[in-house]
Amino acid sequence: MRVFTIIFGFVPAVWIVLAGLAGIQPARAGDRPVVRWYMPDFAPLSILDGPDVGTGSADVVLHYLIGRMPQFDHRLLPATFLRLEQDSAHYHDICAPTVLATPERMKQLIFSHHAWRVALARVVFMDAERASLRRHIRPDGRMDTVSLLSDAGLSGGYVAGRSYTPAIDTALAAVSRSAVVTALSSQESALKMMELGRLDYAFGYSFELRYALEKKGVAVASAPALGDAAWQHGFFACSRGALGEQVLQALDALLEEPLPADVQRASHRWTHEDELELETGPLAMVGERS
């Protein structure tokens, strides 16, 4: 299996949301079908605002790839993973990068043959709160998320519509209607609420933590979830239909070759090489694509 390291990051000139995106009906630009790329607020993989907008670790790579696919009219639209799931059930011109292939998403989406091996999400907490969470941390340093989410004395947060890890997702599903955890719009909101003392912990990724630390100087700690593997796969995904198939086929063909060196260097700005690697090979069964 050939492996080469990448990450996403947009250049600012490409991060343009056209006024026509206010409508959600599929469209065509001349003879080119429109492809709407749904971009989550998932810094530093995709950075949608602030001084670093367009430089996130899915932007540079996606910019390079869409520049090599002129047969489509590419539009970029900020949207949550939850909206991706909802809209892809009704519209057939939607794609997104770094999507985990959960059972629910596989009902509405098809996935690329290439995938990123992504370091898993963790339980995030302010360093000052370590003592209050210690009773849920096993001797090997892993957090018992079932025990944690059963603790009425602690409050947690998660980003609505995001899939984290098998252990975290399973624990969240069991308490999703409980006051113990709060659904939030972004990881930035979770970190801010922890700073304000309104949350004791949240869930997030190591690269998110590093980005937050570098930008805000926040003293944050984390622990992996008990029962999780070391990594999971994140794919390009498109809504089911002929257009989605065409986009993924073109994209997979481009990714048969290594990315240019300058693109790879730019993609590493916010992450470590062991946090996101592009794999090729036996992942083609995901999403029932041949």
Structure, briefly:
With 290 residues, the protein is α/β, with parallel strands linked by helices.
Number of strands: 13
Give the rounded overall mean pLDDT. Answer: 83
User: Gyration radius, to the nearest Å?
Assistant: 19 Å
The backbone outline, from C-alpha atoms, is globular
Structural class: alpha/beta
The percent range for helix content is 25-40%
Q: N-to-C SSE series? A: EEEHEHEHEEHHEHEHEHEEHHE
What does this molecule look like?
The protein has ten helices and 13 strands. The strands form two sheets. Strands 1, 2, 3, 4, 5, 6, 12 and 13 form an eight-stranded mixed β-sheet that branches. 42% of the residues are buried. Helix 6 links the parallel strand 8 and strand 9. The chain has 290 residues and is of the alpha/beta class.
Keywords, separated by commas or semicolons:
13 strands; 8-stranded mixed sheet; alpha/beta; disordered N terminus; 5-stranded mixed sheet; globular; single chain; 290 residues
